[in-house]
Amino acid sequence: xxxxxxxxxxxxxxxxxxxxxxxxDKFYDQDIISTDNSNEPTKGMENFRKExxxxxxxxxxxxxxLLSTIVEENLSVAHWHYIFTNKMFGRLDxxxxxxxxxxxxxxxxxxxFYNLG
Length: 117
Description:
The relative contact order is 0.20. The longest helix has 14 residues, at 45-58. This protein has a single domain, classed as Roll (Nuclear Transport Factor 2, Chain: A). It is of the alpha+beta class. A six-stranded mixed beta sheet has the order 2-1-6-5-4-3. The chain contains three helices and six strands; from the N terminus they run ααββαββββ. It starts with a helix and ends with a strand. Helices cover 30% and strands 51% of the residues. It holds the Pfam family SnoaL_2. Residues 21-108 form the SnoaL-like domain. It comes from Leadbetterella byssophila (strain DSM 17132 / JCM 16389 / KACC 11308 / NBRC 106382 / 4M15). InterPro entries: NTF2-like_dom_sf, SnoaL-like.
């Protein structure tokens, strides 16, 4: 049986390999609620998957480094360093904290915190 820590490691590994859609399909709940900073949340798998596909089609990732993680019961926190070029926003280089709540091996809620300025 896979432990929760192993599940989180596998999820983070897919993200580090830029396998975003694979990570979405395998680790996100149908009722996912995902929020960036204080923006309106994206709700539901269909809307969330469209957001991820939009990011992929409009961005060229240069670096995606996992700096640190915390794994607790049904909660994971990851500190990321992103560098990518987005067609709308240009080149972005920032650090992000991602907090995920899990249930039954799936992410049910996540919040991303970052400052682009």
